[in-house]
Design brief:
Bound molecules: adenosine monophosphate, manganese (II) ion
CATH topology of the largest domain: TIM Barrel
Strand content: 15-25%
Shape: globular
Oligomer: single chain
Order of helices and strands: EHEHEEHHHHHEHEHEHE
Length: about 280
């Protein structure tokens, strides 16, 4: 496979994106994407619709998901699964379990927000949810913007929802080995999502790469919509050192909410082995 403009990470209304799967696929196609993965958080419910839309558009598509993982000392990391069988029962059951904790977590987030004067946040966030099983911090952020407490979603995270802020609650997601195992058992490739976004010390960072590789992780997002040029260089180096397959990913959530549009990222450094070569 030799795609010119692959994008292997984006979100629809099945998780915290703003567009339904079919509309997202159409936007990708219009932007010149020729290989797409939809990677909703802890969900695969949008894949049938996306695959059908991609087929209608004549665009290559691979199944994806982005699994929430608890790692180390209350850190959350995201593992993208690519190219798995979307009918696999063990993967579906694992994702259902991870999703299952989200509603109670949302109640705890709302209770913390109420303490700092933002009332009605549970019901408010639900107004933005496309999938009742998948309420996320992004939905809370949209409600807080609606209430006029902040001008945009990014500002809401900075003041209320990021780790250490008043509306943040710790939560137990999947274990790293479980997430990698579910993806692998379903025939997919586990990819470490947006490594530049984790607040880790250099030593913790290396521990994460080592653990990810030992547990069967095979890929890393070198190019992500949230990586700058220095980060792309850094994670290209990690891909070379650890022998990881390289992925290229916008992490697009919707117009106006993402810095980089679907399919509009930098290209991978040419010496890296791209993850899509596994699908030849
Ligand atoms: P959750 O899975 O409910 O913890 O929500 C995580 C999602 O929140 C991420 O996938 C992003 O879409 C969004 N998010 C996290 N941090 C930020 C941030 N600093 N700015 C904007 N969105 C963010
Ligand atoms: Mn998200
Ligand atoms: Mn993520
Ligand atoms: Mn994402």
């Amino acid at each position: 496979m030799n795609p010119q403009n692959p994008d292997l990470h984006c979100h629809s209304t099945v998780s915290d994106g703003l567009m339904c799967p079919a509309a997202l696929v159409e936007r990708a196609h219009a932007n010149g994407v020729d290989l797409l993965a939809l990677t909703d958080h802890d969900e695969i419910g949008g894949l049938d619709e996306a695959a059908q839309a991609a087929e209608a558009a004549g665009m290559r598509f691979v199944n994806g998901t982005e699994i929430s993982v608890s790692w180390g000392d209350d850190q959350t990391v995201h593992i993208v699964g690519l190219g798995f069988d979307r009918k696999n029962a063990a993967l579906a059951a694992g994702l259902a379990r991870v999703r299952g904790g989200r509603d109670a977590r949302a109640g705890r987030i709302a209770a913390e927000l109420a303490k700092v004067g933002i009332d009605g946040a549970y019901e408010g966030a639900l107004k933005y949810v496309g999938n009742p099983a998948l309420v996320s911090r992004s939905h809370f952020a949209r409600y807080i913007v609606e209430r006029g407490f902040a001008r945009d979603v990014k500002t809401v995270f900075d003041h209320w929802l990021a780790k250490g802020k008043p509306g943040y609650v710790s939560h137990v997601w999947a274990e790293l080995g479980e997430a990698i195992g579910w993806i692998g058992a379903a025939g997919g490739i586990a990819v470490l999502a947006h490594p530049g976004r984790y607040r880790l010390t250099p030593a913790q960072r290396r521990e994460l790469y080592v653990a990810f590789k030992e547990l069967g992780g095979r890929g890393i997002e070198v190019v992500s919509g949230s990586h700058n040029a220095d980060e792309i260089r850094e994670f290209a180096g990690i891909a070379r050192e650890f022998g990881f397959l390289a992925s290229r990913a916008s992490d697009f959530h919707g117009p106006g909410e993402s810095f980089i549009d679907i399919g509009r990222m930098a290209q991978l450094p040419p010496d890296l082995k791209p993850v899509w070569e596994e699908w030849d």
